[in-house]
Amino acid sequence: MPRVKRGTNRRDYRHKTLKRAKGFFLTKSKLNRSAQEAVEKALKYGYVGRRLKKRNFRSLWIVRINAACRISDISYSRFISGLKRAGVMLNRKVLADIAVNDANGFLALVAKAKSAPQPNVH
Predict the structure, then answer these.
(1) Band of the pLDDT at 122, cuts 50, 70, 90?
(2) Position 119 in a domain
């Protein structure tokens, strides 16, 4: 039976895995099988983490906006509702930045939200 020449495929695959596992503990950075398992797990955590990051930042922005709203005697939900009715289309990231860095600007937004027309409730 003739010998199979695989080229560099196997070596390249293993080098790629070990390069990704650089800095891992003990055999996880030295042996291919352990490294492959560790790298797969790390990639999975990274994938999940990138989605959690978006959730966490939105939550942080809402907390900051709510804190600034409470100082101005308005609830977060009434503030957001008032801004929508007033036609102010700012996302929570921008609102949180204004709340932290520009108190006067935020007070102007609160005034605009409070003066927006109330919805008709039957």
Answers:
(1) low
(2) no
